[in-house]
């Protein structure tokens, strides 16, 4: 099964978004999931789905294992959100809007069990004033603000609603020493499971 870093490298090399016009060459009778109407059209509904998946026991263990393995939170969020896009859960615009909330949800879960967090692994000291996030140029100051808030444990107000906060109390105690091998992202109703998808349940024993 592919590791988190292998999945992220695969996404980076894929170009992240479809080639313009590629959908015109596909069979209209069998469109790809991301060519159909997305499952979610609002940030609120998508965030609730993402959180619901995050707190599923197997997903939670794998997610925290990845954080414990020093996989940057921003990398994990990109993996999950891009997989969600591929599976038809959201369109590219909503995917980008979900990036910060997804990062903060991962940080909140890691803070709960005192896991040291790596938020970002890029170089913010180079000549460029922008970084690529989900195939879109993002101002470095925005990334630095997220790093500052996440490192201090300050999750923006409203990221977790009362119900989500309460669900934190029911999460299982876990051992994050075992390396993580997979993550799960919110599934779409039309999605077809893939053997090594981050959105599919683990197929081997262990984390």
Which tags fit this structure?
single chain; 207 residues; mainly alpha; two-stranded antiparallel ribbon; 42% helix; 4% strand; disordered C terminus
Count, helices: 8
Share in β-strands: under 5%
Total number of β-strand segments? 2
Strand order of the largest sheet: 1-2
| Distance between the ends | 11 Å
Provide structural commentary:
This protein is mainly alpha-helical and 207 residues long. It has a domain of 116 residues. It has eight helices and two strands. The protein has a two-stranded antiparallel ribbon. Strand 1 and strand 2 form a beta hairpin. Helix 2 packs parallel to helix 6 and helix 4 packs across helix 6. The longest helix has 14 residues. The C terminus is likely disordered.
Helices and strands, with pairings:
Blueprint: H1 4-13, H2 43-54, H3 57-68, H4 73-86, H5 92-97, H6 99-112, E1 130-133, E2 136-139, H7 140-152, H8 162-167
Antiparallel strand pairs: 1-2
Helix pairs in contact: 1-4, 2-6, 4-6
Brief rundown of the structure:
Helix content is 42%, strand content 4%.
């Amino acid at each position: 099964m592919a590791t988190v870093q292998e999945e992220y490298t695969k996404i980076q090399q894929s170009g992240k978004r479809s080639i313009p016009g590629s959908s015109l060459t596909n069979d209209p009778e069998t469109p790809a999931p991301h060519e159909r109407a997305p499952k979610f059209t609002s940030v609120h509904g998508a965030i609730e789905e993402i959180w619901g998946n995050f707190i599923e026991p197997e997903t939670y263990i794998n997610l925290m294992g990845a954080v414990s393995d020093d996989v940057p939170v921003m990398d994990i969020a990109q993996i999950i959100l891009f997989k969600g896009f591929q599976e038809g859960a959201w369109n590219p615009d909503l995917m980008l809007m979900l990036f910060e909330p997804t990062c903060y949800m991962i940080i909140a879960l890691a803070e709960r069990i005192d896991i040291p967090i790596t938020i970002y692994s890029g170089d913010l000291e180079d000549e460029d004033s922008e970084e690529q996030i989900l195939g879109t140029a993002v101002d470095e100051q925005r990334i630095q603000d997220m790093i500052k808030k996440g490192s201090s444990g300050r999750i923006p107000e409203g990221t977790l609603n009362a119900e989500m906060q309460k669900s934190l109390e029911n999460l299982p105690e876990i051992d994050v020493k075992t390396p993580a091998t997979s993550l799960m992202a919110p599934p779409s109703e039309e999605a077809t499971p893939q053997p090594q998808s981050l959105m599919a349940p683990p197929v081997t024993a262990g984390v």
